[in-house]
Amino acid sequence: MDTVLQHLNSQQQAALDELFEFLRIPSVSADSAFLPDMQRCADFVLQSMSTAGLTAEIIPTKGHPIVYGERIEDASLPTVLVYGHYDVQPPDPLELWTTPPFEPQIRDGRIYARGATDDKGQVFTHLKSIQAWVEKTGRLPVNVKFLIEGEEEVGSDNLDRFLADNKERLKADVAVISDTSQYGDGIPSITYGLRGIVAAEVRLTGPSKDLHSGVFGGSVANPINAIARLCGSLVDEAGSVQIPGFYDDVIELSDKEKQEFVRLPFSEDTFLAETGSGAVFGEAGYSTLERRWVRPTCDINGIVGGYTGEGPKTIVPSKATAKVTCRLVPGQNPKKILTALESFLRERCPPGLTFEFLTFHGCEAFVFDPNSEWINAASAALQAAFGSPPVFIREGGSIPVVSSFQQILGIDTLLLGWGRNTDDLHSPNEHFHVADFHNGILASAHLWQKLADVQR
Ligand code: BES
Ligand code: ZN
Residue 90: what pLDDT? Predict the structure, then answer.
């Protein structure tokens, strides 16, 4: 172990240089203009797996390729399935980046680039720790299987098929994912719950073309007026979602967990400063952490239509579109929520407008028992690398594969995030602290040994 750690400490710059290469590839899964880069990025991951000592291959899917690699040391050892994603969110709006999103740069001890924290930097920590173990000791303390996909940011649509078709090959005792955040500065964390999600788009069409609003306004339905009303009716002033049945299946937080949340350090002022918001807002009767982690939500993500250029333009627009997502909590069924959302909007759509409802990805929420031997092992690894014991938290984001691992492969996941929610993931100027990258590599190196010691 010591030689592995020493080696990693001496290889910090080399690891950064390689990560930079990874970050230079604009692997934006949502936009087909980046298709060749997705393939190039999969090739890079394949190469990094081979360098780390894994036997790896690229597996095509209906969408972007999966990269799979494994190193099986001995059938008697525990097997760990490591998941991550090489795709990134679109970098827009480009003009808000201090340096271009795909030209990584270190400033103030942070690596700035799209994908730095979500999720390339975090994926890389595991590859580098494996490589060090193999180079320095010729073996790993556990068997590892790496599944790095290219469609997480667009909902992992083709992943369940792959899991179902490869159950035997993917057989493992536990999964590890580093794609979440630490609770705060100097507070490493283990996440034991995530929210689920459903995503949809509503399209309203009125007149067959934009019309003069003086000549025709007030005599035919205006799709933007209508979509604004529809969107506005989803959540009331007290932050409560108005879709009938929305809260029916929600599993309420236990008093014990409620108390545990209260014990976590939380400053509203810091939270407001971090989000750049003027005030907190959310469902009445719940704390900010509860609103973020364990309450379901409904958010409009985008709304477009009509004229939005400079100066006025007097029209009744022909079309309006809105994108909507609901975050889900344990108990809620994604299909049921989507159906309820659609009926709610369809019933309220004024006559004379065409209503279209498109659905995208969806996944269930996830929560597991934070008292397992695997968790204890992970906890010891984090403590060894970050210097303080982790806190146990839930998170509001979604990682679709986690519930699929539970349902299809029957395994739990250790969510060990080295990032921070202040890393501007999905925002301009995304970054990853160099120290988190390095400590993440060390924690990962410890993790393999600690997991090997678990009594099964
Ligand atoms: N890494 C995030 C999820 C995350 C971030 C969880 C921070 C907890 C803390 C992941 O890449 C992501 O953004 N997922 C999407 C999933 C969706 C597209 C299905 C999300 O949550 O919006
Ligand atoms: Zn991610």
Answer: 98
* Residue with CA nearest ligand 1 atom 20: 398
Q: What are 74-79's contacts with CB under 8 Å, separation 24+?
A: 74/143, 75/143, 77/141, 77/142, 77/143, 77/452, 78/142, 78/143, 78/173, 78/174, 78/451, 78/452, 78/454, 78/456, 79/142, 79/143, 79/144, 79/145, 79/171, 79/172, 79/173
Q: Is the pLDDT of residue 406 over 90?
A: yes
Other C-beta atoms lying within 10 Å of the C-beta of residue 456: 9
Q: What is the pLDDT of residues 47-93, one digit of tens each?
A: 999 999 999 999 999 999 999 999 999 999 999 999 999 999 999 99
This prediction's pTM = 0.93
404 torsion bin: left (phi>0), alpha (psi -120 to 50), beta (else): alpha
Distance 350 CA to ligand 1 centre (A): 35
Look at residue 456 and tell me whether its pLDDT is greater than 90.
no
| pLDDT above 90 (res 381) | yes
Among residues 29, 65, 62, the alpha carbon closest in space to that of 44 is found at: 65
Q: Which amino acid is at 136?
A: K
Question: What are the structural domains of the chain?
Answer: 2-194+365-452 (3.40.630.10), 198-250+296-361 (3.30.70.360)
- The phi and psi torsions of 198 (rounded to 5 degrees) equal -130, 150
Look at residue 338 and tell me whether its pLDDT is greater than 90: yes
pLDDT at position 455, please? 85
Pocket test for ligand 1, best of 361, 423, 425, 436 (most atoms within 8 A of CB): 425
Q: What is the DSSP letter of 119?
A: I
**Is the pLDDT confidence value at 361 over 90?**
no
DSSP 269-292: HHHHHHHT-SS---STT--HHHHH
User: Rounded mean pLDDT of the chain?
Assistant: 97
Query: Is the CA virtual torsion 242, 244, 250, 256 positive or negative?
Result: positive
Supply the residue whose CA is at minimum distance from atom 19 of ligand 1.
155
